[in-house]
Amino acid sequence: MQILNEIIRQSAIGALSKWYQSAVLLVFSSIVAMLFTMLVVLLTNATSISANFSYLFGGIV
């Protein structure tokens, strides 16, 4: 915990109040958790996903 406090203190949010630091860390943690959840869902349903890599207006076939 002491290392985490030192990293926060020396980062860009170190000068902000504790409330803002908590809010920033909560938003960051939420984004990371959402991305991890999306990765797990993608990997578990990979067989039923079809990807189409074509151009919108015809392009070169």
Strand content: under 5%
Evaluate the radius of gyration: 20 Å
Major beta-sheet overview: none
Q: Please, how many helices?
A: 2
| Secondary-structure element pattern, one letter each | HH
Helicity level: 55-70%
Domain module tally:
1
Structural class: mainly alpha
- Measured between the Cα atoms of the first and last residue, the distance is 55 Å
Main attributes of the structure:
mainly alpha, single chain, elongated, 61 residues
Description:
The protein is mainly α and 61 residues long. The chain has one domain. The protein is 59% helix and 0% strand. It has two helices and no strands. The longest helix is centred in the middle third of the chain and has 27 residues. The mean pLDDT is 85.
Brief account:
This protein is mainly alpha-helical and 61 residues long.
Task: Give the arrangement of secondary structure elements.
Blueprint: H1 2-10, H2 18-44
